Target: T-protein
Amino acid sequence: MVAELSKLRDQIDDVDQQMVELLARRLALVEEVGHVKSKHGLPIYAPDREAAMLASRRQEAEHKGVPPDLIEDILRRTMRESYSSENDSGFKCLKPELRPIVVVGGYGQLGGLFCRLFELSGYQVRKLGSQDWDCADDILADAGMVVVSVPINLTEQIIAKLDHLPDDCILADLTSIKSGPLQAMLEVHRGPVIGLHPMFGPDIASLAKQVVVYCDGRHPESYQWLLEQIQIWGATLNRISAIEHDQGMTLIQALRHFTSFVYGVHLAEEDPQLELLLSLSSPIYRLELAMVGRLFAQDAQLYADIIMSAPQNLAMIKRFHQRFGEAIEMLERQDKEAFTQAFNQVEHWFGDYAQHFLTESQGLLRQANDSTHRGKKG
Model:
């Protein structure tokens, strides 16, 4: 038995080595593709091309008796690495005549990410940090665009200092709230203004498939090139009003982060053995626990600013608290009929998305389970 297994495993190892060689060849080809896209100003992410390629490979896999989901998983993971590799080729500069771009807060993580993207696109970039305000007038004097990337609680205060920019300079911010900062920029600067909210953190390897929300401020014709540049980086743009944006962020960010915060506080107070919880966890609970734990691996001040950034956040959290209390009362009554009625109401609200999210989450759970190691420590 041992000899038979050894022989088969040797053959598997040989196939694995061939796979590594093929992946290396694919990444080399991707590098060449990156150079071509950079030269011609093509986005690194082409959704139609990706969808057509995946459909073809799934069909071929099924014809050969290989599970199509397996091939798609492999290709999606490979493409994610490919998008990161394409960054190294740089990007076409859509506004080569633009004067220097100044990133206020460019020494921070998110500001630094955008500095890098602009530099990869061939723009001259300057950073303005908290230690540079003594020479800020010189740094800003000939700016073609100023991007504000500072903590939420400082954003409007910093914007107020930018009152001597050239009239044709584009003023933008990267804040996760938009109404206040956008209005502050419009009041302090008479030139082009745009509000941006990157819906991702600074630790991403590529903007492919990421979303950047933007709110028009003034003279949108002056910053269309910027929106196109962001698309070349791979991101998808979502245009929305500042008010609608902030209303959405109340649910997407403030409420979600607050409930994760409270659940984390509850766990810490209950003080269970974390290793025991993990050993008993299904993939979905492990994933939920990971998302909560992820919050506490980051900057407390950042999340405090997000949650406390607007009065409507507190109002939404209070309404959630009220509904939570009503649900507890339902449990106390052991009212399964009311539970079922509420459940069906929510199911109706989700509509077709419920089944879509079920399928999507199953893929995520498979990935979470694949990364789980259940072996003994040693």
User: Anything to note?
Assistant: The first helix runs from residue 2 to 40.
